[in-house]
Amino acid sequence: MELRLLVTFEKVATVLSFTRAAAELNYAQSSVTAQIRALEDALGSQLFDRLGSRIRLTEAGERLLPYARQIIELTEEARAAVAGTEEPSGTLAVGTMESLTNYRLPPLLEFFHHRYPKVRLTLRPTLGDETRQALRQGTYDLGFLMEEETEHPGLESEVLAVEPLALVAAPGHRLYGGEVTVADLVREPLLATEPGCAYRDLFERELTAVAAVEFREFGTIEATKRAAAAGLGICLLPEVTVAAELAEGSLVRLEWQPPFTLSTQLAWRAGKRLPRHARLFLERARRLVSEQG
Fold it and tell me: Among candidates 93, 87, 88, 101, which has minimal Cα distance to 121?
């Protein structure tokens, strides 16, 4: 088996499209088709089922994929070792989210930019399900998750920290200063970011167990915070995103403790050998979140 055939196979298996794989590999589509056929001939097995304009892996293709990825990753690691490259280099596609990108990651990004200038970081803003799918497909190398669950099929993950949440409102809100119940909350105007954020979805689950509720959606955390500060309603957000507003008094914390716990995690595809620069990113992220508390 030639390495180039495995590289082409891995790309087609990841994107499930000969056309897209050809574009990403800078090949003609006919070259991709010919390489896949050559690999199938060498192995004596069909690797893809052609379903009209769509394709999917056969059982043989599913069995080959993890081996192909291991061979490709080991080859890249061997090349770096033989070249004697001391300074980490390479690309790193990282799935992340607004709450982390804006409020936790800037020191990490600054550190990597100055310490490892040959590492090209690409941040991809996505939510939980989309991030997990991109990791399984190999589109992302690493992905940050903020979830209640800590085990994800097809992925390995490390919990970096428990992520405290805060229910906030404008100063002078009628619920401020006393114990708040779910029955109190369902009668209030509710503000939220887009669906798909774990804390928003879990909050909605708790409230709808008591009564039907509607959220006014503001898309981003920043917009949601401003709406709350303007007295338009209450919202549940990661504490790190509202720490400054709570300190300056433009928002106040209401006395309600969520009955669920979220943790910030860093995940990658199960069985993937993380290259050196990815391991350095994981190590630095672990240290940074620990120092932030």
Answer: 93
Q: How far is CA 64 from CA 68, 83, 216, in A?
A: 6, 29, 47
Contact assessment for residue 93 and residue 122, using Cβ atoms and an 8 Å cutoff: yes
Q: Which of 164, 176, 183 is nearest to 292 (CA)?
A: 164
Question: Encoding tokens for residue 187?
Answer: 């009668």
Give the count of domains, the chain: 2
Are residue 96 and residue 227 in the same domain, yes or no?
A: yes
Position 120 scores a pLDDT of: 87
pLDDT tens digits along 230-264: 999 999 999 999 999 999 999 999 999 999 999 99
Residue 290 neighbours by CB distance under 10 Å: 10
Q: List own/partner pairs for 275-280 with CB under 8 A and 24 or more apart.
A: 275/73, 275/76, 275/77, 275/80, 275/90, 276/77, 276/80, 276/88, 277/88, 277/89, 277/90, 277/92, 277/116, 277/119, 278/92, 278/141, 278/142, 280/88, 280/116, 280/119
Element (H, E) at 220: none
pTM: 0.73
SS3 category, 77: helix
Residues 113 and 246 in one domain: yes
User: Pick from 13, 78, 76, 73: which is nearest to 39 by CA?
Assistant: 13
What's the average model confidence in pLDDT over 81-86? 64
Tens of pLDDT, residue by residue over 162-216, are 999 999 999 999 999 999 999 999 999 999 988 888 999 999 999 999 999 999 9
Q: CA-CA distance, 13 to 139, in Å (whole number)?
A: 11
Residues 41 and 107 placed together within one structural domain of the fold? no
**Res 293: pLDDT:** 59
Pair (198, 71) in one structural domain: no
> Phi/psi of residue 159, each to 5°?
-75, 120
Considering the domain architecture, whether residues 206 and 274 belong to the same structural domain is answered as yes
Report the C-alpha gap between 236 and 225 in whole angstroms. Answer: 10
